[in-house]
Amino acid sequence: MRIYPAIDLKDGECVRLYKGDYDKKTVYSSDAVATALKWQESGANFLHVVDLDGARSGDGKNRETIKEICKNVSMKVQTGGGIRSMADIDALLDAGVYRVILGTAAVKNFELVETACKKYGERIAVGIDAKDGFVATDGWEKVSTLTAVEFAKKVEKAGVRTIIYTDIATDGAMCGPNIEAMKEMVNETNLNVIASGGVSCIYDIKALLQTGVEGVITGRAINDGKLNLAQAVELCKNA
């Protein structure tokens, strides 16, 4: 299992939202590159970057910051938020991003998922954000009638190999991940599932190791010092 330290960007700053609420944010740093380098020094080989402004409005205002991160780290960077077209995907991959995550666009424009997978294969991932088991879109502000597992099976058929599965109820809340939801997703699909939301300590990492997920994203816990990133990376390396 891999550990993906997370950087959430809003107005160029590294922040965390509480349960996806844009009005409940904590600012951790104004220097995203320095933060990325800090996580790299802790042993991480992958980095998860979210453009929160992009996720909400689709404007991609943090793209330059993401480009700078890619220029300055040796980690593989995956990013999502505000990616609505093939032009967006092309630009990010050309800028050095390793894997692009389609979220709202994957729900509203499924043809984009199919086209992107044909062109880029495993470099395309889909972010499935669930609220009470149903897919949420538009920066988590809207909820669809599609269940997370149903949608995962649909993207798998389109050629997607990796999903980032977020339980909104636990994200940024430090209350522990939704273990049962992660297990269900792993068992019901053949996808590489990256778990996101609720990780608060090393015990949560140990619990997720038992679910069969490919990776786990952690943001607030490492920023708050509740989880030692180097320790978590080492645990997963030896698991």
Salient structural properties:
about 240 residues, eight-stranded parallel beta barrel, about 40% helix, alpha/beta, TIM Barrel, globular, single chain
Task: Walk me through what this model shows.
It is a single chain. The chain has 239 residues and is of the alpha/beta class. The chain has helices spanning 32-41, 52-57, 63-72, 86-94, 104-108, 110-120, 148-157, 179-188, 202-209, 220-223, 229-237; strands spanning 2-10, 13-18, 21-29, 46-51, 76-80, 99-102, 124-131, 134-137, 142-147, 162-167, 192-196, 215-218. The protein has a single domain, classed as Aldolase class I (TIM Barrel, Alpha-Beta Barrel). It has an eight-stranded parallel beta barrel with strand order 1-4-5-6-7-10-11-12, surrounded by seven helices. The chain is globular and about 40 Å long. The mean pLDDT is 91.
